[in-house]
Amino acid sequence: MSVRAAAGVPADEVKDGTATVRQVLIGPDEGPHFALRRFIMQPGGGMPRHTNKVEHEQYVLRGAATITLGDETHRVKAGDVVYIPAGQPHSYRAEGSEPFEFLCVVPNQPDVIELVKDEAPGC
Q1: Is the alpha carbon torsion for 1, 85, 46, 110 positive or negative?
Q2: Which residues neighbour 95 within 8 Å (Cβ) at sequence distance 6 or greater?
Q3: Pairing between strand 64-69 and 90-95?
Q4: Of 16, 28, 30, 67, whose CB is crowded by the most CB atoms within 10 A?
Q5: Distance from first CA to last CA of the chain, Å, rounded?
Q6: Residue closest to 45 by CA, chosen among 79, 78, 113, 92
Q7: 7 three-state secondary structure
Q8: What is the pLDDT of residue 121?
Q9: Which CATH topology does 12-103 take?
């Protein structure tokens, strides 16, 4: 069992993100099946189009963002939930004047993150 304040968990910059940090609130050393992560994107921040080997279940805590899932674009806000299947290309762009913050649950399995290069028009 583990109990601690989320504010005391280190926040690491997301390597390919812009103005985005991630906290691993519950990791594989604490939960054998799932990890719980918190992402915080400052206004205008986000993450480029990418895929993950594992699925994501997300709950938006505050703020708003445009999320692209495959070829569909959605505006999400506090109280919304998002499911991203493994291998689904997706991206995030925080909107508005407050940070966009969400919880993300993923299986504790090896994950591979790959940036998706958009094809040039006419290809």
Answers
A1: positive
A2: 43, 63, 64, 65, 66, 75
A3: antiparallel
A4: 67
A5: 52
A6: 92
A7: helix
A8: 47
A9: Jelly Rolls (2.60.120)
| pTM of the predicted protein model | 0.92
Q: What is the mean pLDDT of the chain?
A: 94
Residues 6 or more apart whose CB falls under 8 angstroms from that of 74 comprise 66, 67, 68, 82
* Amino acid identity at 89: P
Among 39, 38, 50, 47, CA closest to 88 = 50
- By the 8 A CB rule, do 91 and 68 touch? yes
Alpha helix segments (H runs only) across the chain: none
The helix (run of H) or strand (run of E) holding residue 55 is none
- Could you tell me if residue 96 is left (phi over 0), alpha (psi between -120 and 50 degrees) or otherwise beta? left
If we measure between CA atoms, which residue out of 43, 38, 84, 34 comes closest to residue 60? 38
Record the tokens describing residue 6, joined without a space. Answer: 């989320």
- Cβ-contact 94, 46 below 8 angstroms: yes
pLDDT in tens, 77-103: 999 999 999 999 999 999 999 999 999
